[in-house]
C-alpha cells in the first residue's frame, strides 16, 4: 500500500487530488493545462530514440556508479563496520563519541557517495544528450559542426538575402 501511495502522489498533481482540475472552464488552471500537463507524444523513430537515450544514460550511470562509487567503498565498509575503537585518553567527550567514530565516518562516506550518485545522473544526461543531438543533426542532414568562421563570414550575405532582398533585387 505504501509503494502504491508513493507512486500515486509522485504522479498526481496536488491540484487534482480531490477534484478534476483539468476539465474546469476556469482560467485558474490554464498554466497547468498548457505547460505542465501538455506533453507531445512521440511516435516511431523519435520514440525509440528517446528510449535509447534514457537506456544509454542509465547504462552509463550504472557502469560509472559500480566501478567508481561502489567498488571504492567495498574495503572501507568491510573495515569500518567491524572496527572496534580503543578509546584511551579522550577527556572532552568521554568514550561515547569515540566508540562510534568508525560508524560516523562510514555514514559520512555513504552520504557523500549518495550525493555523488544523484549528482552524476544529470552529468550523464547532458553527455548522452549532446552525443544524441549531434547524431540526430547528422541524420537530418544538418551540419552543426560547421566552423564558426564560415558562419560569420557568410552572415551579412544571408541577412541581405533573407530579410532585405526582394525577388527583383540582385543578391551580391
Automatic annotation (TrEMBL):
<dbReference type="GO" id="GO:0051278">
    <property type="term" value="P:fungal-type cell wall polysaccharide biosynthetic process"/>
</dbReference>
<dbReference type="GO" id="GO:0005886">
    <property type="term" value="C:plasma membrane"/>
</dbReference>
<dbReference type="InterPro" id="IPR056261">
    <property type="entry name" value="FKS1-like_dom2"/>
</dbReference>
<protein>
    <submittedName>
        <fullName>1,3-beta-glucan synthase</fullName>
    </submittedName>
</protein>
<feature type="transmembrane region" description="Helical">
    <location>
        <begin position="102"/>
        <end position="118"/>
    </location>
</feature>
<feature type="transmembrane region" description="Helical">
    <location>
        <begin position="48"/>
        <end position="69"/>
    </location>
</feature>
<dbReference type="Pfam" id="PF23605">
    <property type="entry name" value="FKS1_dom2"/>
</dbReference>
<keyword id="KW-0472">Membrane</keyword>
<dbReference type="GO" id="GO:0003843">
    <property type="term" value="F:1,3-beta-D-glucan synthase activity"/>
</dbReference>
<feature type="domain" description="1,3-beta-glucan synthase component FKS1-like">
    <location>
        <begin position="1"/>
        <end position="39"/>
    </location>
</feature>
<keyword id="KW-1133">Transmembrane helix</keyword>
<feature type="transmembrane region" description="Helical">
    <location>
        <begin position="124"/>
        <end position="148"/>
    </location>
</feature>
<keyword id="KW-0812">Transmembrane</keyword>
<dbReference type="GO" id="GO:0006075">
    <property type="term" value="P:(1-&gt;3)-beta-D-glucan biosynthetic process"/>
</dbReference>
Amino acid at each position: 500500500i505504501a509503494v502504491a501511495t508513493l507512486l500515486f502522489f509522485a504522479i498526481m498533481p496536488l491540484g487534482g487530488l480531490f477534484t478534476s482540475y483539468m476539465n474546469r472552464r476556469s482560467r485558474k488552471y490554464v498554466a497547468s493545462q498548457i505547460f505542465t500537463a501538455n506533453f507531445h507524444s512521440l511516435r516511431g523513430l523519435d520514440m525509440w530514440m528517446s528510449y535509447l537515450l534514457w537506456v544509454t544514460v542509465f547504462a552509463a550511470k550504472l557502469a560509472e556508479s559500480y566501478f567508481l562509487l561502489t567498488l571504492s567503498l567495498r574495503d572501507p565498509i568491510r573495515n569500518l563496520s567491524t572496527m572496534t575503537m580503543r578509546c584511551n585518553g579522550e577527556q572532552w567527550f568521554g568514550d561515547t563519541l569515540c566508540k562510534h567514530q568508525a560508524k560516523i565516518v562510514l555514514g559520512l562516506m555513504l552520504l557523500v557517495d549518495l550525493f555523488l550518485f544523484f549528482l552524476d545522473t544529470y552529468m550523464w544526461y547532458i553527455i548522452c544528450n549532446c552525443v544524441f543531438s549531434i547524431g540526430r543533426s547528422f541524420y537530418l542532414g544538418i551540419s552543426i559542426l560547421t566552423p564558426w568562421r564560415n558562419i560569420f563570414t557568410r552572415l551579412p550575405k544571408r541577412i541581405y538575402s533573407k530579410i532585405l532582398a526582394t525577388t527583383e533585387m540582385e543578391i551580391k
